[in-house]
Design goal:
Number of domains: 1
CATH architecture: 4-Layer Sandwich
Number of helices: 6
CATH topology: Nitrilase/N-carbamoyl-D-aminoacid amidohydrolase
Order of helices and strands: EHEHEEEHEEHEEHEEEEEEH
Strand content: 25-35%
């Protein structure tokens, strides 16, 4: 029987320059978190290298790896060495010309428990992900592990309440978002503040609407545009963990690598759902229009 309390950690990430250095930094941070009691550790999006989607470059596809492959096997070794369930994020080479942004989940014994291919793919200045990533085909299916059923999504997915809801309806006990998001350094301070607040608020909303804890693990630090055509990206950190009412349990700063550790009380989800029975009161008979792209006025 699972304990009612789950010690978790997230590792806010800054690019260390190359795959080996990033994985070494990950191994060190996971070791520290595990020594402090963590049983579940979450890493940021695409944490084995720079956020390469600032530009479109054919040579960048050489960064992709199969799963299993060298980076995924190293993540499994890290999980096994420290006895933690580990959520990582990789640039997956599925086949020639077919690539995904893929979250992987490793059990505490090092075996692959499951994976999730990012479903929503952005295409914005500095975030040219549609050039690199094929939309995922795994669906919104939680991954069963020894620490519970994990609703793993990735970055741009965090703006979509449908994804969080389907994970919740499928029995997810946590919503987990490995993330790489930041400011355009040319934006005004007011615009930067609005964007960051919107990112935090929408995910707290998923926690509230689904009565589930949320773990959002972001990158931090400035990364230059490889093409030199823009000032690059300033990732805003601000990783956080909430409880099932959207209450902050821990939050990180904007600038530096940081590890957050909290112990979740599993019983709170059921207690909150008894008070706020949103799943009971859903009008599933009236939701068919949600499947339309847009509801045009008559």
């Amino acid at each position: 029987m699972q304990s009612s309390h789950l010690p978790i950690a997230l590792i806010q990430h800054r690019d260390a320059g190359d795959v080996a250095s990033n994985l070494d930094a990950t191994a060190s941070a996971v070791a520290t978190a595990a020594a402090a009691g963590a049983r579940l550790v979450v890493l940021a999006e695409l944490h084995t290298g720079p956020y390469f989607c600032q530009t479109e470059d054919l040579a960048t596809f050489d960064r992709a790896e199969p799963i299993p492959g060298p980076s995924s096997e190293r993540l499994g070794e890290i999980a096994r060495a420290h006895g933690v369930v580990l959520v990582g994020s990789l640039f997956e080479r599925r086949a020639p010309g077919l690539y995904h942004n893929t979250a992987v989940v490793y059990e505490a014994d090092g075996r692959l428990a499951g994976y999730y291919r990012k479903m929503h793919i952005p295409d914005d200045p500095g975030y040219y992900e549609k050039y690199y990533f094929t939309p995922g085909d795994t669906g919104f299916v939680p991954i069963d592990t020894s620490v519970g059923r994990l609703g793993v999504l990735v970055c741009w997915d965090q703006w979509y309440p449908e994804a969080a809801r389907i994970m919740a309806l499928s029995g997810a006990e946590l919503l987990i978002y490995p993330t790489a998001i930041g400011w355009d350094p040319q934006d005004t301070p007011d615009e930067q503040a609005r964007q960051r607040e919107a990112w935090i608020t929408v995910q707290r909303g998923h926690a509230v609407a689904n009565n589930l804890p949320v773990i959002a693990c972001n990158r931090c630090g400035h990364e230059p545009d490889p093409s030199g055509q823009s000032p690059g990206a300033q990732f805003w950190g601000s990783s956080f963990i909430t409880g099932p009412q959207g209450e902050f349990l821990a939050s990180a700063g904007t600038d530096d690598p940081e590890t957050l550790q909290v112990t979740l009380d599993r019983g709170r989800t059921e207690a909150v759902r008894r008070q706020w029975p949103f799943l009971r009161d859903r009008r599933i008979d009236a939701y068919a229009p949600i499947l339309k792209r847009y509801i045009d006025p008559h």
